[in-house]
Design brief:
heterodimer, A: 533 residues, mainly alpha, B: 219 residues, alpha+beta, 5-stranded mixed beta sheet, 3-stranded mixed beta sheet, 10 strands, 36% helix
Chain lengths: 533, 219
């Protein structure tokens, strides 16, 4: 009976904290699913001429891995953090539209199931890659329901994203506590604001192009092939999907911008520069999309324009890295697992930024486009970057969410396993790229002997990552019951979520403390040294 | 001498270039590589140094520094200068890389699931197994597709060109020495994508003429 009531409560909740937890758990389950697909792919690619899985299955795994990690894990996991933290950080009782919030969440598991249900059809799940390029994804070349279920799933996720973006924008705009001006907002809230803006402006383009594709498939239109133009799909798709890259990394910028100052015991270096650089990245993010299309034969002048904007976006990214470095400089750094992951994030993001500059250079991109170099680059940004940021966030806010700390010994072991495993997996992919290995090939020929060692090493590394993730799962399950108890202010934090109990009460704050700076909880601590202990 | 069944080791690395376009790109790559490595090592060393040097040793609160305008301007300007250098380097090479010297012959390259067809000027000579070209000759390729997207890519000779149904994309190849150059379709094109190999066989101009005339006679 108690379990039934408890379950019902979670099913019908509109509380931002419960919805946040639902987001985090659901998206993590999708992360595990996408990770298993990655392991199967790495097993297949470990050797030349391998037949561990069939090419047909490999293509489905490749498509679902990309789609899962991007649309069912990274994008919504940040909505999870945003949901849990934004109202707490701005001193609000809930999100602006709690029911809309619940609706946004419930679309996500549904969309995932719709997409995966393709696996149960005779022709299998979608297998045209996560980019779903036309004409390959048209009815003539992708027969069966898999591709349709993929499109419908993405549509549902798009609706979910747009609704939650509106919710975040309104919440941050209207519900900040008195005294919490824009330049006192935690940088994580800034990050969510920028991200929500990107989602709101970009996602309708994805919905539009998917609608065209669906009409082509079922209503006999030819928007995107035959009489129509396959490149039209790419232009619209990337007009969404490049801003989406920033939707996937900006919230991680926010997370590490919270964590590094707390464990360095210094304010973030150049607060305004950090806020402006996120905004600049958001704006420039809309002007670089055709760099995914340098090899499609678009006019040289257009390519040169997009090369310029793409190179330009390296500047605010560089500012961020150096400001994080300057925050640590002269600090008093305490290495909790959260801090280790945050520093790991900065280093991996640095590599992911630098290797991206190669493909910004047009000529070099003609040789590196769609090779394993690009696979390495996106994983340095989205795994070394975003996922390390997510892990930092999990270790940092777990005590707030559950009232208990995650185990630090297991956490540190996980960090080192993950850092080594990640680099062993993805650094060799740069070499594979420059040795001419294309991505998305299910079976590679035996005469490419120079690819052999690097593919094997990458596969071994993938299992190190899997071990690290397994350690995390064990840590969470054990610490929920056995972890040491956390006080309200678990880490000597700066921001408002640390002013309320761990876990917070249903309506968050009995009284919202006065906000006189960007670090209200530090102000409280200095005023009366006993608060929060 | 069947060049297609290459059982021995094959390199498809753009760095072991064998033609002017690929070599120009390889040169560009190498310059960017050293710039990138320098940035990575300098910034990376600072981060690792800071991570060790500023570990917590006592419970005193460090000096609270909120920023430094001069420093922040410096590390906005320096990356800007670096990307301007990379832009200029690339920009000055792009006309050559993209358009090449005036072509001396041209071939239409047609992609289809999961093979390439090569049609020589005049349309009488067609070949499916490999694209044969004379060495030291600038060959214009007009790349198109009859079904889905493909990408024609022979990394040791030139950068890739997309094959798009309804469009023709120009590219150019030139091989310095006789030999076989391999590559793969580099745009995912369906179930048999991984089997879609591209082969260019460079022959001496005399050998090429002999082969071409033989094909013409057969046509």
């Amino acid at each position: 009976m108690k379990i039934v009531v408890g379950t019902l409560e979670w099913l019908r909740t509109t509380d931002h904290k419960k919805i946040g937890v639902l987001y985090l758990c659901t998206t993590f389950a999708f992360f595990l699913a996408g990770g298993l697909m990655a392991l199967l792919m790495r097993l297949q690619l470990a050797h030349p001429a391998n037949h561990f899985v069939t090419a047909a299955l490999y293509n489905q795994l490749m498509t679902l891995h990309g789609t899962t990690m991007i649309f069912l894990w990274i994008i919504p996991v940040f909505s999870g953090f945003g949901n849990y933290l934004v109202p707490l950080m701005i001193g609000a009782r809930d999100m602006a539209f709690p029911r809309l919030n619940a609706f946004s969440y419930w679309l996500i598991p549904m969309a995932g199931l719709v997409m995966y249900s393709g696996l149960l059809t005779q022709t299998g799940a979608a297998n045209a890659g996560w980019t779903g390029y036309t004409p390959l994804s048209e009815a003539q070349f992708s027969i069966g329901l898999g591709q349709d279920l993929w499109i419908v799933g993405l549509h549902l996720l798009g609706i979910s994203s747009i609704a939650s973006a509106i919710n975040f924008l309104v919440t941050i705009q209207r519900m900040r506590a008195p005294g919490l001006s824009w330049f006192r907002l935690p940088l994580f809230v800034w990050a969510i604001e920028v991200t929500a803006g990107l989602v709101l402006l970009a996602t309708p383009f994805l919905a539009g192009v998917l609608a065209l594709e669906l009409m082509d498939r079922h209503l006999g239109t030819t928007f995107l092939y035959r009489g129509g133009d396959p490149l039209l799909y790419q232009f619209i798709f990337w007009f969404y999907s490049h801003p989406a890259v920033y939707i996937m990394i900006v919230p991680a910028f926010g997370i590490v911008s919270e964590i590094i100052p707390v464990f360095s015991r210094k304010p973030i270096f150049g607060y305004r520069a950090m806020a402006f650089s996120m905004t600049a990245i958001g704006v420039l993010g809309f002007m670089v999309f055709a760099h995914h299309m340098f090899t499609t034969g678009i006019p040289l002048l257009l390519q040169e324009f997009f090369m310029a904007t793409t190179l330009l976006i390296a500047v605010p990214s560089g500012v961020k890295v150096l400001n994080w470095l300057a925050t640590m400089w002269g600090g008093s750094i305490r290495y909790t697992t959260a801090m280790l992951f945050a520093v790991g994030f900065v280093l991996m993001f640095l590599i992911g930024g630098v290797d991206g500059v190669f493909t910004a250079s047009l000529g070099v991109d003609y040789q590196l486009h769609a090779t394993y170099w690009v696979v390495a680059h996106i994983h340095y940004v989205l795994f070394g970057g975003s996922v390390f940021g997510v892990m930092a966030g999990f270790f940092y806010w777990f005590p707030k969410i559950t009232g208990r700390y995650l185990n630090e010994t297991l956490g540190k072991l996980q960090f080192w396993l993950q850092l080594v495993g990640f680099n062993v997996t993805f650094m060799p992919m740069h070499i594979l790229g420059i040795l001419g290995m294309p991505r998305r090939i299910a079976i590679w020929p035996a005469n490419r002997v120079d690819w052999v060692p690097w593919n094997l090493v990458a596969t071994v590394g993938a299992f190190f990552i899997a071990a690290a993730v397994l350690l995390f799962v064990i840590n969470v399950l054990a610490s929920i019951r056995l972890g040491s108890r956390a006080p309200a202010d678990a880490w000597q934090g700066n921001t408002l979520e640390w002013a309320t109990s761990s876990p917070p009460p249903a309506f968050n704050f009995e009284t919202v403390p006065a906000i006189l700076s960007a670090r209200p909880v530090r102000d409280l601590r200095l005023a009366s040294p006993t608060v929060g202990s | 001498m069947n060049l297609l069944i290459a059982s021995s080791a094959v390199s498809v690395s753009p760095l072991s270039c064998a033609g002017r376009q690929a070599c120009r790109i390889a040169g560009l790559y190498v310059v960017i590589f050293w710039i990138a490595l320098a940035v990575l090592l300098i910034v990376g060393t600072f981060i690792v140094y800071a991570a060790f040097r500023f570990r917590r040793r006592d419970e005193r609160e460090p000096v609270q520094i909120h920023g430094n305008t001069r420093l922040e301007v410096a590390w906005t300007v320096v990356p800007l200068v670096i990307v301007v250098v990379i832009f200029t380097l690339t920009f000055t090479n792009m006309t050559f890389i993209r358009n090449g010297p005036p072509p001396e012959m041209s071939v239409t390259v047609v992609g289809r699931q999961f093979t390439w067809e090569y049609i020589y000027a005049g349309g009488k000579v067609r070949s499916f197994d490999a694209l044969r070209i004379p060495t030291g000759t600038v060959v214009r390729i007009n790349v198109t597709s009859i079904d889905v997207l493909h990408s024609f890519w022979v990394p040791r000779l030139a950068g890739q060109v997309y094959a798009i149904p309804g469009r023709t994309n120009p590219g150019w190849l030139e091989a310095d020495k006789p030999g076989s150059y391999f590559g793969e379709c580099n745009e995912f094109c369906g179930l048999g994508h991984y089997t879609m190999q591209a082969t260019v066989i460079a022959l001496t101009p005399t050998d090429f003429q002999r082969w071409y005339q033989a094909q013409l006679a057969r046509a």
